[in-house]
Amino acid sequence: MDSATFNGHLSADDVKRNASGRWRDILAANGFNHDELDGRHHPCPKCGGVDRFSLLDESEGAVLCRQCFAEKNGDGLAAIQWRNDWTFSQTIRAVADFLGMDGGERSRLDIVADVARSKRMPVESFRAFGATLDRRGNLEVARVPMFDQHRNQCSSFDLSNISPEFSKGMSAKGQPLGLFVATWPGEGDTVCLVEGVKDAAALH
Fold first, then answer.
1. Which string of DSSP letters, residue by residue, matches 167-199?
2. Alpha-carbon distance 153 to 46, whole Å?
3. 110, 100 in Cβ contact below 8 A?
4. Which of 43, 73, 145, 160 gets the most CB atoms within 10 Å of its CB?
5. pTM for this structure?
6. How far apart are CA 111 and CA 75, in angstroms?
7. Among positive and negative, which fits the CA dihedral 13, 15, 17, 19?
8. Contact yes or no for 101/10 (Cβ under 8 A)
9. Residue 60 three-state SS
């Protein structure tokens, strides 16, 4: 697959970068069964057999059939295009739709997902702590709210892989520090305190 743009907006590189760490779910949503994506040998979903098909590289989404898909099978886009007999444009569109990429005037990376992957946080857990796309000056950041003891938002914490200054995060200037909260505890609940949203998301 090359990095040609789709309709002048979404490129293969953009889509694959957003898809990093999610290929099994993407493949399962586009023609494959989860059971056949465990890395073991299975019948090919296209040409049958007994054990000629397997997930070749989970990080890239690559699959292999030794009978009918032994070449040009290096990533998840190639796998989906092969499985469904789609055009390249149809494949890009389907994966972009799954990832929630809007295909607007420019192809924009999902900063929240990108930060979560780089910090080895589950994306869903990072979002559970309120992480959203925001701006800090001209920089796009993943912004996480912080709360005081009265459960009121008192500040926020910004992370971004675009700027080294924000790779470890930076709180809002002039505002008090607070807690990262996914769910407020109820009576009798056990509360675990950790340092930083990365550890909190991992624990979540």
1. SS-EEPTTS---B--SS---TT------SHHHH
2. 53
3. yes
4. 160
5. 0.51
6. 22
7. negative
8. yes
9. coil
Q: Which two tokens stand for residue 88?
A: 């390249």
Show the tokens assigned to 92: 């890009």
Region of 40 please: left (phi>0), alpha (psi -120 to 50) or beta.
beta
Exposed e or buried b for every residue in 131-155, given b needs 16+ CB within 10 A? Answer: beebebeeebbbbbbbbeeeeeebb
SS3 call for 147:
strand
Token pair, residue 59, equals 């990080």
Q: How far is Cα 129 from Cα 131, in angstroms, rounded to an integer? A: 6
Position of tokens 């099978």? 73
With beta carbons less than 8 A apart as the criterion, state whether 29 and 20 touch.
no
- For 49, counting Cβ atoms within 10 Å of its Cβ (0-12 exposed, 13-18 middle, 19+ buried), the class is middle
Q: Within the chain, what is the greatest distance between any pair of CA atoms?
A: 65
